[in-house]
Amino acid sequence: MNCRLFWLVVLVLFAGTACEHRGSSRSRHSADDSNLPPDQRDAHILGREIFDLIDRAVDYRGSHRGRPAATFRQMGVESLTTNTVRRVVNVQREPVVTVAFRKPAGREILSCRGDSQVLEQAALRGRFTIMCTSSSGAQRPMEVEE
Predict the structure, then answer these.
(1) Are strands 127-134 and 84-91 parallel, antiparallel or unpaired?
(2) Is 30 a residue whose pLDDT tops 60?
(3) Whose CB has fewer CB within 10 Å in the chain, the N or C terminal residue?
(4) How confident is the model at residue 146 (pLDDT cuts 50, 70, 90)?
(5) Which residues touch 115 (CB under 8 Å, ≥6 apart)?
(6) Helix and strand tally (H, E) in the chain?
(7) 110: how many CB neighbours lie within 10 A of its CB?
(8) Following DSSP, what letter does each residue of 50-91 receive, concatenated?
(9) In angstroms, rounded to a whole number, what is the distance separating the alpha carbons of residues 42 and 140?
């Protein structure tokens, strides 16, 4: 019984530390975004969401014998949020995630997409490139800091 209690305490402490780290990271990002031009700010918002969703999709695939999730619902993730619409497709078992603003009025960037390369780029360089669609309809790559 003592051993179980010990591991329970360790698990709770670890979970609390992980949640604390995630919250502090978010507040740092939102403070940095205010100094960016509107197109970069929009790309950073969408890019961080893409990064998280790609990470979850790759994790899902790894824990399901290489079988990718066909939908976000299958992964237990909502495809609609208050601010965004999310889509996932698999190209040769690699997830490609697109995130678009639900209310694009006044936005420079309407949507962005990325694949599992964002994880590798972020690990190696601390930033990653996503492909974004601007309000003029043009497609352009945007750099996002992790």
Answers:
(1) unpaired
(2) no
(3) N
(4) confident
(5) 54, 91, 94, 95, 96, 97
(6) 4, 5
(7) 16
(8) HHHHHHHHHHHHHHTTTPPPSSHHHHT--SB-SSEEEEEEEE
(9) 13
